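protien #1 (seq + structre)
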Amino acid sequence: MPSIFKFLRDLIWAKDASSFSAGVKAWAKYEKTRELQYLERAVQNHQAALDARVSGHPGRPESLYHTAMALWAQCQLGTVTKENATIVISYYDEALRLLPLVDKAGHRAIVHNNLGLVYFRLFRLGEENPEAFPDIGPNLDKSIENHRSALKLKAERADPNRPTSLINLSIALIQKDNEADLTHAITYLGEAVELCNVKASDRHSLILALNSLAEAHDGRYYHAGDVKDVVGQVDALRKVLDLLTGEGKGRLIPLLNLTNGLWRLCEQQPDRGDDLDEAVRRGQEALKLSDKSDKITHFNVLLTLADVLFTRYTQFNKKSVTDLDQAIQYYREAIDPDPVDGPDPVLYSSLASAIYVRCQDFGEVDGVTLEHAFSYSLEALHSCPQDDPLYMKIRNDLGSIYMAQLKNSGEEGDLAKDIPSSEDTVPPCPPDDQDYAHFTEAFKDAKWIFQGRGGHSEASDETVSTRSRSGSRAGSVRSRASSVSARSMTRSVSRSSTRQLSLSQPPLPT
């Protein structure tokens, strides 16, 4: 009898070995051709082999992770659900329990990496649809845990899969969006870039590592405010674009992010004329590649290029009205005629600022008047939350525009009827805020005009005029609250391009 059982067992095992071999061959063809017929064959054959390799079969661990890998690829091409994701995870978990801890073939590292990818995908799906995939935080934590385990098993720098583990762990850590995890990600990605540079053939991994490094620097700057992170972001994105020469729309997001990074750098460290010129060139190239089919990206390209042109005008001693006119044009093109969430206060406030400076420095022209500046500023005020520092800036802008109109014409015109009282605008500004002195001084002037309507003193007139034309403050509307505006824009992440846009590239499979 034992011999009969052995004969039957060997017969079954021969059949499952044949199925497994067919699955491996089909998967190899799928990876080469990306034809779905081969993926379907891989799933069928690996599942058949797994069904035959019951508990205790020496080939069961290998069948588990091969089946999970093929099944997950099929799920991602179709529809990922909690049910099929649970099956894939259960296969990987069982494989880890059965695989030996000392694994010279590297199977445990592969399983940890792939399991980390599954949890990361579930995390992304949870961000899009939290009702269908509710465990957003735990899924991200499990992704990080598995990628860390994979990295520990790839401890040797010479290991060909170490860059993949470094990049995947870093991409997951970036999503935690805190300074400590971002710092770890920057360290890991720095090593990944070094290792990828050694292998000239690993271009895709190098581009992904550099883009992720730029994103990590951008995130850490958001938390810590260290300009060195902006420098790191700019350096990484320049290298990305060097690698993407001649790749058309593949350059768009890195171009936009580099334009934004250069603009931020020039705002933090003025007198960087070459960087500002580069920002304009990069932004113009991004605009040529952008179109309205991707509404969010196109909006950010227009807004960022307009901001760069406006900054170049305010920082350069040799003023160019062309920069101002182009900035106004791009701000206007960025306006959504039917916004879902209402008018964007950052955009409308910036447009009002550019028009105001243009009117003050070069006079009004058709379509660009103080009335237009006032109208856009009022629209920004109505759409801006009152607890946002930008709200205070906008109210100050309205007073500045009104004073300019009164000074230019000697008449109030139609602006005064909509000017809000300045009394409730100063209190929200903390006394230790660096813009507090500018705001309170401006409101003394505004309050005098609102209430006195009498002969304004020369000293007060000079104060308003000097502030509005000062090269260091770049006009009363934009500059007296430039830092306030920047902080507000930083919080308007999804609408103002102050955070780097992600390329949404998936982590790397092993």
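ok now protien #2
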Amino acid sequence: MNDNNNKDHIKLSLPNKPEFVSVARLTASSIASRIGFNIEDIEDIKVAIGEACTNAIQHSSLNESDSYEIEFILDIDKLIIYIRDEGNGKCKKDIKTPNVEELKESGLGLFIIKTLMDEVKCISCEDKGTEIRMVKRIEVGV
């Protein structure tokens, strides 16, 4: 992570339990509102956070006593979000548009995140976990 240290950082560590995804979504909503995002972008951020947290829970270790980390970095014109888990490290290098004829109930999370956020990067190391970096820029004058 090479983001400037002069920016405000907020970190959360959440248990690998689905019932805590709402905490991440509410935190993201509050932060995004505080720094000036419009309601549509706030909703996009909440959905992206929910998908990323669900991925972290599903793909991290199966032990519910484990946790994953969310870091928010507040910049003048954007919000940078990292979600890190300690799982097996399975992240597709290219997030492609899924084939509509082959859709499954699961597997769309990263595609949804990429659709809603301005930048998405997934870094994964086998047996060392996954980090998803998401960026949403504040639209000025809209």
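The mean pLDDT is 84.
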